[in-house]
Task: structure prediction
Amino acid sequence: IAMIQGVCVGGGLELACMCDLRICGEFSRFGVPVNRIGITMAYPEIKALIDLVGRATALEILLEGRVFDSQEAKAKGLVNRVVPDSRVKEETYLSARRISEGAPLANRLHKKFAYRLLEPEPLRSEELDEGFKIVETEDHQEGFRAFLKKTKPRFKGR
Result:
């Protein structure tokens, strides 16, 4: 999770794009003005930017080299959440806590599936079945037990 407080420009934006989630303050600023100093963003970072905002918006960000506000970053899909500046740290930690309270295996599989779906090859039958096998795991058993008892699950591996 990228916790963005203040300016997120150039390398900072490249790093934030590599994260799964981005939470920023309302007065954060974003951009990649590297064209002004005659350098480029590298392929992996451009791919991460394109994956977040799409090719046309990524090109707008790169070619214009403009710095923009958090609301525009949110509208472009660059950040997941804009919160008051005084709450960025708290909101980021709350997000991390909510993630950590989930079943570790389910979270790992969701990330794996999300990235696999970016690949052009069709899904194989064993991949399609992979998500259903989770019902055979301790994570599912613990989650289901807690659901029935109306308690918080205690997943192993935390």
Notes: Strands lie at 2-4, 7-9, 22-25, 29-31, 68-69, 81-83. The chain has a mean pLDDT of 94. Residues 88-100 form the longest helix (13 residues). The longest strand covers residues 22-25.
